[in-house]
Automatic annotation (TrEMBL):
Keyword Ligase attached: yes
Stored InterPro entries: Amidase, Amidase_CS, Amidase_dom, AS_sf, GatA
Active site feature: K80 (charge relay system), S155 (charge relay system), S179 (acyl-ester intermediate)
Protein name, as recorded: Glutamyl-tRNA(Gln) amidotransferase subunit A
Function statement: Allows the formation of correctly charged Gln-tRNA(Gln) through the transamidation of misacylated Glu-tRNA(Gln) in organisms which lack glutaminyl-tRNA synthetase. The reaction takes place in the presence of glutamine and ATP through an activated gamma-phospho-Glu-tRNA(Gln).
Pfam families for the chain: Amidase
Organism: Gulosibacter sediminis
EC number(s) recorded for this UniProt protein: 6.3.5.7
Residue span, Amidase domain: 25-473
Amino acid sequence: MTDLTKLTAAELAQRLTAGETTSVEATQAHLDRITAVDGVVHAYLTVDAEGALQQAEAADAARAAGDTTSPLAGVPIAVKDNLVTRGLETTAGSRILEGWQPPYDAHVIERLRAAGMPILGKTNMDEFAMGSSTETSGFGATNNPWGLDRIPGGSGGGSAAAVAAFEAPIALGTDTGGSVRQPASVTGTVGVKPTYGGVSRYGAIAMASSLDQIGPAARTVLDAALLHDVIGGHDVRDQTSMTHDWPSFASAAQAGLESDAVAGLRVGVPRQLAEGEGFEAGVRERFQEALDVLTARGATITWIDLDTLDYAVAAYYLLMPAEVSSNLARYDSVRYGLRVTPEGANVEQVMSATRAAGFGDEAKRRILLGTYALSSGYYDAYYGSAQKVRTLVQGDFDRAFGEVDVLVAPTSPTVAWKLGERLDDPTAMYVADITTIPANLAGIPALSLPMGLSEGLPVGFQFMAPAREDARLYKVGAALEAALNEQWGSPLYAQAPELKEA
């Protein structure tokens, strides 16, 4: 591993600006790292070495001509495989899309290309983002760089693992119920779910449209903020895209490094997201230590009750499958990817055979659950009731933010579990997102950053803020990150185990 792959995105950008390296050198260093270790991590589904190097050459040429407008120009990036990339295979982790090359770029991909960021490749994920472990991918599981027999979280385990294994300095993911933040928690990285509508979903393969949100995966809060600045903003092609005038998130993160950044900050801890069964002792201890750090720097901690959160997971697992059953109906053997044609079969039989062969067990389970919830006679009892719970959750958050500036909780109740340990118990898998799901139901921004180790494995600390207050998250997140790094003597990612290179 070279020095270039050990750098954060911000550090790498500084070297590029100073002329101490080139985008081609940085991109090649990460491609070499992928070649060396991805055989054991399996973070990537597709590596586009030729395309990445061409983009890097263009970035270097633009810089030489004085045409560099983005702070991250020339910094390579990995992209989750449910973000469509023109001419580059996009599968969303599903066999039913194997071989499909989109004819257009997602909005965020257009932004990356305009910013001069070479795309290293597409990262592994749970099929159509359905899962908490990246084990439901149609192309095999990803391994956690902190323990190769452990899950890297899901559904964006590939993006988080690529960043944690130094196979990319930064990456993009999508977060429907915690799919950026929960992988960040178990891999010792930073993950952000922006305010719903803050980043265009145009070109993001939909799982649950009212919950999906694209967000950054990074090694530091500042890196995530820099990437958020690149991908955020209004897009007329997404009807849910906000026209809000966003501040600079990178400036907010840099403001968090000031000594009084959290002085007077009112911090609320929802008991329902930090206590109860399922929270491991080590997670509780690291969480309390992080709260003590905030208190020592002038924040005020208040424990509060948000009673409707007791029903958030149940509501989510009715709403999300209902939208899944609708969104995945488009994979009918006609328009995309796989087509299975049994001899003598009619159209319906071809469609049925294709979906049977192309979808994995978890996708089929959620399609059936969602179809049942939306069926005649059950709509009001299930989907309608879940929508009412969602409204109550949003009301609870609104009231809480009338009393505190941010809400906090452990990002995940446990450390990364062993591969295969929960595959036969979907309910146990679902509750892994118990602390991240409420932010998606409410549409508010949330950020996860490392808060230490338990059993030698990373655990994450989650900040949540009112809608459109993403900048507040970056400021307080950077402040806590700096305080913890000072306490540890180095960033947590620097303590990651060395991976054996071929």
